[in-house]
Amino acid sequence: MESRLAVRYQQIADPTVVKLLEITNQPGIISFAGGIPAPETFPTELVADATRGTPLNLQYSSTQGILELRELVAGKLSREWARQVNANEILITSGSQQALDLIGRTFLNDDDTVLVEDPTYFVALYVLSAYGAKYQTVDWHKPRSLAGAKLAYVVSNYQNPTGETLTQVQRQVIATMLGEAGTLLVEDDPYGELYFGRRPPRPIASIAPKQTIYVTSFSKIMAPAFRLGVVVAEATVIEKLARVKTGMDLCTSAMTQGIALRVLQDPRYTEHLIKLRQYYGRKARVMLMALKQYMPKGVAWTHPQGGMFVWVTLPACVDTAQLHERALGEKVAFVPGYIFRSSKEKSSSLRLSFATASGEEIERGIEILASLVKQTLRGGERK
Amino acid sequence: MESRLAVRYQQIADPTVVKLLEITNQPGIISFAGGIPAPETFPTELVADATRGTPLNLQYSSTQGILELRELVAGKLSREWARQVNANEILITSGSQQALDLIGRTFLNDDDTVLVEDPTYFVALYVLSAYGAKYQTVDWHKPRSLAGAKLAYVVSNYQNPTGETLTQVQRQVIATMLGEAGTLLVEDDPYGELYFGRRPPRPIASIAPKQTIYVTSFSKIMAPAFRLGVVVAEATVIEKLARVKTGMDLCTSAMTQGIALRVLQDPRYTEHLIKLRQYYGRKARVMLMALKQYMPKGVAWTHPQGGMFVWVTLPACVDTAQLHERALGEKVAFVPGYIFRSSKEKSSSLRLSFATASGEEIERGIEILASLVKQTLRGGERK
């Protein structure tokens, strides 16, 4: 069996990641590892009401997605982006992960260069590798050149894993550079609606619509089980992506699209979003306060204004993969930084999610983690 | 934009197919084209009941699929296949189309040979082309050699497009040849439950489990909007496929998996299946009788014992792509045979679906089609 596997297999199916996620999902562990939303934030009542009344749509959807849903999303984006977005510029995908897969399949040839941040969302790295992507790193806060790259990938709001957000000025700089380089930007924005205070700046897609494929998801604003992603791009790009999607899964579920449409039309949905933002905002504050209280000097972390993640950077001598082994022994899980590097080189950083652990768990978990860090730093000094 | 597309794009996104499906879905057309189930067969009441009561599961599913659903499917297959099938030998996919994509991605390198029938399910051809498959044709009713092929693809029950079914003996011959050649068989079985009289023979997967990846779907026995496919293979293969699926869409909807589970557990489900078989059996009989009544000499067709399709073969001089242009003018649609050929060479055959048209439409549509065929044959004689 092993000998029959495709060459790409080793690149796209790293068992360390799967094992890591399995371990960190074990009961009794305080997990800061998962990038999943808290079940208590799900709009359970809205979903239950949405499944009542009119029978659900059980047939195939068009590959591009149900027109009424695309129109509703287009209307919302038109208001927020201060430019007209039409339903034919929108494709519904089976989660935003599929959108990344679809973009890779449609655009990438072997050895095409893809610009990614270091660190970046690791599953994007896997999926684009399936199409032979070669990665070059770019710092989106001060990019030097985008020339020579077919695609570029950015999470502009509350980045996974760092939690950082690009400023309005940075977005404008990137938009200008894209036009000059002829590079196509994949702007992945699953967390943009989860802002704690002010709404983040308009996406790069609203400034450079011809150079950008914008991707977002219903997983974090509604629930992952919808498996609904949204792609926004020029109509000619959407048409091509839809054709390619046909071979991947024919279409996305008309049932979950129909339920999502009703939830979005429900007047209580706005209230749901407000609660969601407050919920994650509270969790983030608890985590940031615990970090401040317990972490020793020499440890730095980001201060996310939205999303689900804090990025902690320890002194360079610490390998967070090793730290994670010890943390698991103490029943605390996070994701070590090397996972998010296209080079997979060792990292002294780590990602903490504040999404699913309770406030108490966050405090206790950070305290445990901080004492492990202190031990590690003392150990490092002894050497 | 065009210049940025991947080389594979032309192979995997043939606009003729998309356009064909768009045309044939226009109102006012008697369509024998679509491979989609009849909405009146959907278990609407069972689905409505399944969404009531216990709240739906809104979180991410494990990539392999919800355990309870996999256990239920494993139990059913164990009884039918007369061998033990375990839940770890089962992977839930986002429709069976995704399963084909996943298998291609996991196993195919550029220029690997894939054995396919001529004709075969055309979307399978597209999706495997994305991974560089080179096709060789095989007659599954009397295969000569499977040597040198990485994968082989068969629809063993009520084939798409021919409606034909492999006999028990043919299945055993194929199972033996697979072992000798070391070729991995993808046995695609979306229609096996839609038998009109006797259940078809056990799948090749039940005879050669180590050589076969079996794929089936909930789209035809429940409804397409579930977007649920099932893969059955050795546990080591399933584990590899699940890892690769992570990069494609993370997981399949826990919501639709949960609803499907409840529908399967509903005692009325057996009755639903019986009605479904009767419904399609009646439609098939109407179509076969109409063909017999209207078609001129020299036209042959298959006599499916299940599924959704009849395959009609006209005298070799007829190009069914041209016939289809004329048929559309008369508001009748089918799928011309060349679509189902890996060579895309012209064909004198065509696929008729009896699934969605009403009995009356079937009679009228076949009468129109037959008169066009007669005209065409007279025209051919004049030349």
Topology of chain A as a string of helices (H) and strands (E): HHEHHEHEHEEHEHEEHHHEEHEEEH
Query: Largest chain-chain contact?
Result: A-B, 71 and 71 residues
CATH architecture of the largest domain in chain A: 3-Layer(aba) Sandwich
- Total helical elements of chain A: 13
Q: Main traits of this protein?
A:
homodimer, 383 residues, alpha/beta, Aspartate Aminotransferase, domain 1, Aspartate Aminotransferase, domain 2, seven-stranded mixed beta sheet, 13 helices, 42% helix, globular
What would your notes on this structure say?
Two copies of one chain form a homodimer. With 383 residues, chain A is α/β, with parallel strands linked by helices. Chain A is 42% helix and 13% strand. Chain A has helices spanning 9-12, 15-24, 44-50, 67-81, 95-107, 122-129, 168-181, 204-207, 235-249, 254-265, 269-294, 320-329, 359-382; strands at 30-31, 90-93, 113-116, 134-137, 151-154, 184-188, 212-217, 229-232, 300-301, 309-313, 332-333, 335-336, 349-353. In chain A, the strands form three sheets. Chain A has a seven-stranded mixed β-sheet, sandwiched between helices. In chain A, strands 9-10-13-12 form a four-stranded antiparallel β-sheet. In chain A, helix 7 links the parallel strand 5 (151-154) and strand 6 (184-188). In chain A, helix 5 packs parallel to helix 6 (122-129). The mean pLDDT of chain A is 94. At the A-B interface, helix 2, helix 3, helix 5, helix 6 and helix 9 of A face helix 2, helix 3, helix 5, helix 6 and helix 9 of B.
